[in-house]
Amino acid sequence: MICSKLSSNTAGFQPSERRRDSSMIVHCTERKIRFAGSEISIPMASSSPLASICFLFLLLNVAHSKTLKRDVKALNEIKASLGWRVVYAWIGDDPCGDGDLPPWSGVTCSTQGDYRVVTELEVYAVSIVGPFPTAVTNLLDLRRLDLHNNKLTGPIPPQIGRLKRLRTLNLRWNKLQDAIPPEIGELKQLTHLYLSFNNFKGEIPKELASLLELRYLYLLGNRFIGRIPPELGTLQNLRHLDVGNNHLVGTIRELIHFEGSFPALRNLYLNNNFLTGGIPAQLANLTNLEILYLSNNKMSGVIPSGLAHIPRLTYLYLDNNQFTGRIPDAFYKHPYLKEMYIEGNAFRPGVKPIGVHRVLEVSDTEFLF
């Protein structure tokens, strides 16, 4: 740790790193800890006596900093709209804690300068009933919003686009409906988007292609119609795309229309829709693909041999389509391929599956977050 006495006019003053009393500013090399439900920075171990001063200043700052009024108001509005299962655990007026009162359950705060702000809100599996709490969109420093496995209804409000710092949005297993607002494309820092198992309808908004940091996109189990926007293929960081169990149409050729589509994609779930056409040879250009789930569509044609040359292809589900011909021998020699389901097609006699058929209703990673 380095602590040094700095002049009061030092350039580049950062409130989170330097604290001023009547005679000096103390600059400390810090590390993050959690204290009373808030993330704070403390100085690392040092033989310098100023280390104790740094640590004391930081603790006093946390103890006396106030929660931003904007966030207090927003959380209390949310509290007033939620059911008793949540409210009974939210004691006091300050969601970040006040005096002897702890922070509200599911609320995480961070210290920014002289104030505390709410950065995470996790209230899931507590049977919240009613519309999406619009007051959430006033928590402008929110990085994680998790309201999954409740009974929320109605649409996602367009004001969701105000949460510019949001990285994770988890609303799966609710009863949300209507179209996804295009304003969701304004969440430029979003990496994880979980909207599975709701009643969303309309087309998948192409504005999702504006989420350049997006890695995981779960849209399965809704009522989406139309074609999957090929613009999603331009997402350089997207690893997992699941649009299964909807009412989507179109072809895979349309989906990978853009050159270099889906460069990082590992898992592609297109199952249980109304996709037509064949498997284009260009799909083999998705060299990071590990899971390809095409079951229960209306696809046809032969299986291109190039697909067997995807290096780490592990699971291939082709069942219940209208495929014909033979399965190229290269699939049976693939070093990673564990399962290949082929029943319910018009393959030539003698074509055999790989692995033991098990029904996959949701992707394995759906329950990890």
UniProtKB/TrEMBL annotation:
Matching entries from SMART domains are given as: LRR_TYP
Q: Which UniProt keywords apply?
A: Leucine-rich repeat, Repeat, Signal
InterPro entries on file: Leu-rich_rpt (IPR001611), Leu-rich_rpt_typical-subtyp (IPR003591), LRR_dom_sf (IPR032675)
Among Pfam families, the record links this protein to: LRR_1, LRR_8
| PANTHER family on file | SOMATIC EMBRYOGENESIS RECEPTOR KINASE 1
- Annotated protein name in UniProt: Leucine-rich repeat receptor-like protein kinase
> Organism, per UniProt?
Protea cynaroides
